[in-house]
Every structure is written in structure tokens, then in C-alpha cells.
Amino acid sequence: MATQENTSSAIDETPISPVATARGRKMSLEQHLKDRPDRHELVDKNILPESTAAPSLQEKQKELAKHMRADSLNDKISHRPSPEQLLENGVLHDDPRSPDEKYAEAIEEEYAKREGGA
């Protein structure tokens, strides 16, 4: 029994942090909560999504919007005029250089970029 009394008196039961700092932290937290921005500001800064849907549905909503944009772009691309039509209408101008000349010029430009000459 004597060993139990010695070990219990050797245990330090003082708090790790003083009570005054805990109160200060609580006051600080309350101050930060009062000063936090409202939902509208967070949406404007793109921190929160605009959607008011449930969080479990927001991912599906993003995926649907992505697919809708892809469908819209594919539709626009499918109605785009061909290069031949653009040449006929004068929008594009035919390049008189041969493909080999274009390739050689592109290679020279690439070498110049890598060596800092361009």
C-alpha cells in the first residue's frame, strides 16, 4: 500500500494550459465566428458552390454540367465549316509552302527557342 501512496503523490495533475488562455481562445473563436463572411461572399469568391442542392447531389450536378458543355461543344464543332469551304469563302488563305518547307521552318524555330535565339 505504501507504493500506491508514493505513486499517487508523484502524479502531476496540473492542467497543461492555463485556464486564462483557454478563455482567451474561446473569446477569439467567438470573435472569428462573428466576423466570418456570409454565404453570398463565399460564393462570389468561388469558395462555396452556387448550388443549394444537397452535398450528395452537388457532384452529380457538376458532372451533368460538364457533360452538357461537352455536348454543346461537339454540336458546334459538327456544324463548323470545312477548310475547303473556308478557302472558297476567302476566310483561309492557302499557304504556298510545301509541307516539307513548313516542317523545316518549324524545326528551325524549335531549335532557336531551345537555344534562346528566338
Observed structural traits:
118 residues, mainly alpha, 6 helices, 68% helix, elongated
Concise account of the structure shown:
It contains six helices and no strands. It is mainly alpha-helical and 118 residues long.
Structure write-up:
This protein is an all-alpha fold and 118 residues long. The protein has a domain at 18-48. The chain has helices at 2-10, 19-35, 39-44, 55-78, 83-89, 99-115. The chain is elongated and about 95 Å long. The mean pLDDT is 83. One of its GO terms (cellular component) is nucleus. Residues 1-101 are annotated as: Disordered. It holds the Pfam family RPEL. It comes from Xylaria multiplex. It is found in: Nucleus.
